[in-house]
């Protein structure tokens, strides 16, 4: 009963316990490493294990020397044919064949032959090797995957584009027309241009009209000036005025 009464009095009056554990000072840090003695450091450095150099067996890695592989006779013949194509043809188009069957290729060849356009097949490796040593080196990135060349001695771009409309599996990558490298969009824009005959006719008609207009202007001014001078002379001449007076009296 007395213990219960003491607990109630402690709660009511806010008594504190007689013993309290209070911690003073900073916390002990034990994570720092003890410095190694200088003699021990020297001993560790002297006795450290140094592994021997790794010996590479011969042939494990490719040699740094570049071996130039000489082309065989067949590759040289293909390069010679390519050189003739680039010298004789003004239009060389690069087309990628995407799952094109033999029948589709024959039909496309027939359509292109009507306009004098030929299809030539060359391996991509031979094309890149030839283009790397020529002025057409910028065409090398076009030869990716199965590709063919559409060549013609004259730039017949409209005919080529009309034939490609019937072969959706053939993708035009780019072309070299009149020694100018064009993208696929550039070839489409080139096909929309008028033909050379139409441009020449428009140029000749324009020059003829300008020439005739110049000749008319050169002839018109002197004739007009001479007519004005003759009229002025007639008005200033006294004899003409005297002759006109008697004639007017006779008429009256």
Automatic annotation (TrEMBL):
It comes from the Eukaryota. The keyword Nucleus does not apply. Keywords: Ribonucleoprotein, Ribosomal protein. The keyword Ribosomal protein applies. InterPro entries: Ribosomal_uL10, Ribosomal_uL10-like_sf, Ribosomal_uL10_bac_type. Gene3D superfamilies: 3.30.70.1730. GO terms for cellular component: ribonucleoprotein complex; ribosome. PANTHER family: 39S RIBOSOMAL PROTEIN L10, MITOCHONDRIAL. Belongs to the universal ribosomal protein uL10 family. This is Large ribosomal subunit protein uL10m.
